[in-house]
Design a protein that fits this description.
The chain is about 20% helix and about 40% strand. By secondary structure, the protein is α+β, with helices and mostly antiparallel strands. A 5-stranded antiparallel sheet has the order 1-3-4-5-2. It is globular, with a radius of gyration of 16 Å.
């Protein structure tokens, strides 16, 4: 299958105390932590195109430019919606938007790069041999 512009993704979960700024150390309050919103955005993008990759391929995040615009309390549902807006060879650019049950909480762009999993790990693991 071919990777083309327009592919969409969606992931959701409930905010728990483990997903707060206080838990991750990015703040002191028990509200949905920005690092977890970022992880949700990356997961939404990479899973949205998984079925279009060849055997042995994966993607890695290479850039993320986002705004976290509203706080979300523990117990509320959050979700991310992604759309692939540019395909440039192995570089993929996604528009990402995050929401809670009240409205938008974040937005931005995320870039991923298609890799050969085995070669990528081989190269990465060779760093330990230097």
């Amino acid at each position: 299958m071919e990777i083309t512009k327009g592919i969409k993704g969606r992931k959701e979960y409930i905010v728990t105390k483990e997903l707060t700024a206080a838990a991750v150390g990015s703040g002191l309050l028990e509200v949905y932590g920005t690092p977890y919103m970022i992880a949700l955005m990356e997961e939404t993008c990479h899973t949205s195109i998984g079925q279009f990759l060849e055997e042995g391929q994966g993607t890695v995040g290479i850039s993320l430019e986002i705004k976290h615009t509203a706080a979300t309390p523990v117990g509320m549902k959050v979700w991310c919606e992604s759309q692939l807006v540019e395909v440039d060879g192995k570089r993929l650019v996604f528009k990402v938007q995050a929401f809670d049950q009240v409205g938008p909480i974040g937005e931005g762009t995320h870039q991923r790069f298609i890799i050969d999993n085995e070669k990528f790990l081989e190269k990465t693991n060779s760093k330990g041999n230097k």
